[in-house]
Design goal:
This protein is mainly alpha-helical. The chain contains 13 helices and six strands. It folds into three domains: 51 residues, no CATH class; 88 residues, DNA polymerase, domain 1, CATH 1.10.150.130; 164 residues, Intergrase catalytic core (hpI Integrase, Chain A), CATH 1.10.443.10. It starts with 8 loop residues before the first strand and ends with a helix.
Length: 340
């Protein structure tokens, strides 16, 4: 079928190509009368190329916009939306963007659902990380559609698979712990992760510790929940995290760990706004409970007394008839902690 003059052309390119069909449109002529061609895109079938040509004629878009890469679009989306979010949310988006590196330089208008699905399928991170990648892609596509760069949102076809129900405990490595100390002055709330690693507290227990139960002079924290053995237990403060607790300690606050308003922080807010974005930013793959698991692992490797480990950690297998600690008890616990 012959196309009308000025409508454009569709033809098959030579050679073995994944997308052999090309759609082009004449944008004008040079001073010598030579046609100026604009390539709309390349496609797997003649039908796809023809549809693209028809759509272009129905709603011609900015030629320059059609050449924008995924990275170009993300930077525009970031300026318009992401940069207005909290720092932790920005870190989450930036980390998800890094996982999309295979498509950074690809023309955005030429991306297909299979390109996006491949990003998720080849990501060896958690379900939550994959979910954040999808959230990022949906945001970029929403921006692109709003600005008439594409007409279809391929991110809606991304399948994340089933959320894993089995919980795998993975302790932080020595190198990861060192990095946490290195970046602590620069990244907000990293100190809380180190405090968790060196006290064995569950995150809910740490968030519940009141300032009145922080004994800087005696070098102990009192707290704990969940089991009888874990309630109101005394945990010595390792010399490695004492400066962090001293810096965070504020007698005007009711709780040791607070939100921006100086109030007790909720578990869900801590995980969503701080722990997970920090893990993404530092390219670490851990859950909050891995901090407690790391403490048990470090204590065991250091050769700490088994009873002391259970007592400090509030392990359910350690029971006592009296919740009274003698001076010798506390000194023994401090000695165990300083093995770390």
């Amino acid at each position: 079928m012959r196309l009308p003059n000025g409508f454009g052309t569709v033809y098959k390119m030579k050679g073995s190509r994944r997308r052999p069909w090309i759609a082009r449109k004449t944008l004008g002529f040079t001073n010598t009368g030579k046609q100026k061609w604009f390539t709309i895109g390349t496609y797997e079938t003649k039908k796809e190329a023809m549809c693209a040509l028809v759509k272009f004629n129905e709603n011609p878009y900015d030629v320059k916009q059609n050449k924008l890469t995924f990275e170009d679009l993300y930077n525009r989306f970031k300026t318009e939306s992401v940069d207005k979010l909290s720092k932790s949310a920005q870190n989450g988006y930036n980390a998800a963007f890094k996982h999309c590196s295979p498509i950074h330089k690809k023309i955005f208008a030429e991306l297909k659902a299979s390109d996006l699905q491949r990003i998720v399928d080849t990501c060896d991170r958690s379900y939550e990380t994959k979910r954040k990648i999808k959230v990022l892609l949906k945001g970029v596509y929403k921006y692109a559609m709003k600005n008439d760069i594409v007409a279809k949102d391929y991110s809606e076809f991304i399948e994340l698979g089933k959320r894993e129900t089995t919980i795998e405990r993975k302790p932080f490595t020595d190198a990861e712990i060192k990095r946490l100390f290195d970046v602590e002055p620069e990244i907000s709330m990293v100190d809380t992760i180190l405090i968790l690693i060196y006290t064995g507290f569950r995150i809910s227990e740490l968030l519940d510790i009141k300032t009145e139960n922080v004994n800087l002079e005696g070098g102990t924290l009192t707290g704990g929940l969940k089991t009888e053995a874990g309630k109101n237990r005394i945990v010595p403060i390792s010399h490695k995290i004492l400066p962090l607790i001293e810096k965070r300690y504020n007698p005007d606050n009711k709780f040791l760990i607070t939100n921006r308003l100086g109030r007790q922080m909720k578990y869900s807010n801590y995980v969503r706004e701080y722990f997970e974005p920090i893990m993404e930013q530092l390219d670490m793959d851990h859950k909050t409970h891995d901090c407690r698991h790391t403490w048990f692992t470090l204590m065991d490797k250091a050769g700490a007394n088994k009873v002391a480990i259970k007592k400090i950690g509030g392990h359910a297998s350690y029971q006592t008839s009296e919740k009274v600690y003698t001076h010798k008890d506390i000194e023994d616990l401090k000695e165990a902690i300083e093995l770390l």
